[in-house]
Amino acid sequence: MAEAGSGRALLSVRDLRTWFPIRRLLFSPSRGYVKAVDGVSFDLSPGETLGLVGESGCGKTTLGRTLLRLERASGGRVVYNGHDLLSLGEAALRPLRRRLQMIFQDPYSSLNPRLAVRDIVTEGLRQHGQLDGSLDAVATRLLHEVGLDASALYRYPHEFSGGQRQRISIARAISLQPEFIVCDEAVSALDVSIQAQIINLLVDLRHRYGLSYLFISHDLSVIRHISQRVAVMYLGRLVEVGETRAVIDAPQHPYTQALVSAIPVPGKARSRRIVLRGDVPSPANPPSGCRFHTRCPQAMDHCKTVEPPLVRLKHNGVEHRVWCHLYSH
Asked: Where in the chain is the domain with CATH 3.40.50.300?
């Protein structure tokens, strides 16, 4: 079930599961599980950006955090450059952590308010013994990389705008020269004009340093501009994966079709919006069969009981993959 990009995989995820136990009291027996991530598989190639899109609560952030071991996986494998991250102890994992970084949604809450910017962007280098040169010189270089100057060195996070704080977060993330960065809704809290600037910065850094991103967003219009491939997630599972243009121009899964219909296109009349009925089911009690069948306008009887298979489709010669009974015959 690999969702491979081109060439060898930098990151290979297989049947990843992250379940959270439900307990009445802290140490009481589990009464069930919230299946936030439930059987996700994909590959990420060096220098590639994979966009991960879906409604709030579908498991996107939990997936990103699990990849970096910020959440504990319940099963599956995450292989980075030949290392199974989920099986490594803390001592063995530590040298790899500097190659795996994360940019969080809210830059204000992710930056230590008691540290000056100089110390924030160089903290990782000091922790890993990678600081080469004076703090001021190294911090100034990192700030220049993200479009800020030395006047920011001794200021604190509350003195900056949201876009500037996100630039500081990005400078911190790239300080250790990572290969893979999880961008968790990295622009969703910013104004539209600032979003474009941050997206352009991330694209520039990807080209400059050969970075690979998992770019998490609920907004397909943002995913369209930054990602080579897109993975659509619903209730803990992937429902469609493929090259961004193929998925957005010709979405095959009914859920993807609904998401794409909501994208505004400047200068064009809005196409017919697909409005999904009902609410997203609880991940603590997901529907049997296809998890989307309770809201799907094209659901069939066997969608309610049989899990959909993986089907490979092509659009203008480009393959993408979909988990849907509509294409399994």
From this structure: 11-99+179-193+208-327
CATH no. of 11-99+179-193+208-327: 3.40.50.300
- Residue-by-residue pLDDT tens, the chain, 329 positions: 334 344 589 999 999 999 999 887 777 777 889 999 999 999 999 999 999 999 988 999 999 999 999 999 999 999 999 999 999 999 999 999 999 999 998 888 889 999 999 999 999 999 998 888 899 999 999 999 999 999 999 999 999 999 999 999 999 999 999 999 999 999 988 888 899 999 999 999 999 999 999 999 988 889 999 999 999 999 999 999 999 999 998 999 999 999 998 887 665 655 678 888 888 899 999 999 999 999 999 999 999 999 999 999 887 778 889 999 998 76
Q: What is the 3-state secondary structure (H, E, C) of the chain?
A: CCCCCCCCCCEEEEEEEEEEECCCCCCCCCCCEEEEEEEEEEEECCCCEEEEECCCCCCHHHHHHHHCCCCCCCEEEEEECCEEHHHCCHHHHHHHHCCEEEECCCHHHHCCCCCCHHHHHHHHHHHCCCCCCCHHHHHHHHHHHCCCCHHHCCCCHHHCCHHHHHHHHHHHHHCCCCCEEEEECCCCCCCHHHHHHHHHHHHHHHHHHCCEEEEEECCHHHHHHHCCEEEEEECCEEEEEEEHHHHHHCCCCHHHHHHHHCCCCCCCCCCCCCCCCCCCCCCCCCCCCCCCCCCCCCCCHHHHCCCCCEEEEEECCEEEEEECHHHCC
- Entry pTM: 0.91
